[in-house]
Amino acid sequence: MLEISAEQIRRLEQDLLNFRERAYPFATRFTLTNTAFRAREFAQRNIEDQMVLRRPFAQRSVQVERARTLNVEQQEARVGSTADFMETQEFGGRETGRRHGHPVPTPYSAGQGRRARPRTRVPRRRHRVGSITLGGKRVRPKTPGQRLVLLARSAIESGQRHVFWQQQHGFGPRTGIYYIAGGSLRRSRGWPRGAKMQLVHDMSHGSITIPRNPWLDPAVVDAQRMMPQIYRDALVFQLDRHGIFVDW
Questions:
Q1: Full domain range(s) for residue 183
Q2: Does 220 lie in the same domain as 200?
Q3: What is the pLDDT of residues 160-211, one digit of tens each?
Q4: Residue among 192, 97, 70, 96 nearest 135 (CA)
Q5: 42-78 as b/e, with b when 16 or more CB fall inside 10 Å?
Q6: N- to C-terminal Cα distance for the chain?
Q7: Residues 42 and 83 in one domain
Q8: Is residue 102 packed enough to be buried (19+ CB in 10 Å), middle (13-18) or exposed (0-12)?
Q9: 191 and 170 in one domain?
Q10: pLDDT digits (tens, 9 = 90+) for 77-110
Q11: Which of 26, 53, 67, 154 could form a disulfide with 32 if both were Cys (CB 3.0 to 4.6 A apart)?
């Protein structure tokens, strides 16, 4: 026969009240926030594994907004990136270039061979768009072929070996920024001896399609798998902290 005294009932009522007001909302708030931070860890790892990074900005852009209120129905924690381009990476999209097309770095710009598809390194500093000063005098040759020769010779002469070439009527290389590698001006005219045009930024397309590269959704799924254990640990901690249900 089970016997419960009035004192035990009062203690149980008080424990239930403390659980509702002290333990439960703190445990749920901690669970949401901790799960969001776990998702951030997984997301930053995905970014490092899946993207070619020039600096750690993309990883640092992943931030967590903590759950604040103790009103369980209004509690929420958020995780995401403060950088707009990370949304394009997650869902895919299109980027449109300006006047001459969208610059796409080539494997050569990163010091890799032409067969390196896709490019797995960031462009070298001298080949980055922001670091390039275009060489080549503004001339008006009679033919596109003459213009190409004059661009190369002018780049070697000035030492500013990056040139912009726009394909005309299907003649010559594709539109883009090129690097004139090697070459000498021993000849008074014609193509510089030993010079090669290396494409560093392909600008032959007005816009490019960026494929989906999910980095956040898989991280959230992985974090959600850990959520039950996080909640259990948080609940046990709160019960022990407030001495709730110790006699039951």
A1: 100-207
A2: no
A3: 889 888 887 677 788 889 999 988 887 778 888 889 989 998 888 777 788 8
A4: 192
A5: bbbebbeeeeeeeeeebbebbebeebeeeeeeebebe
A6: 17
A7: yes
A8: middle
A9: yes
A10: 999 999 988 998 999 887 776 666 778 888 888 8
A11: 67
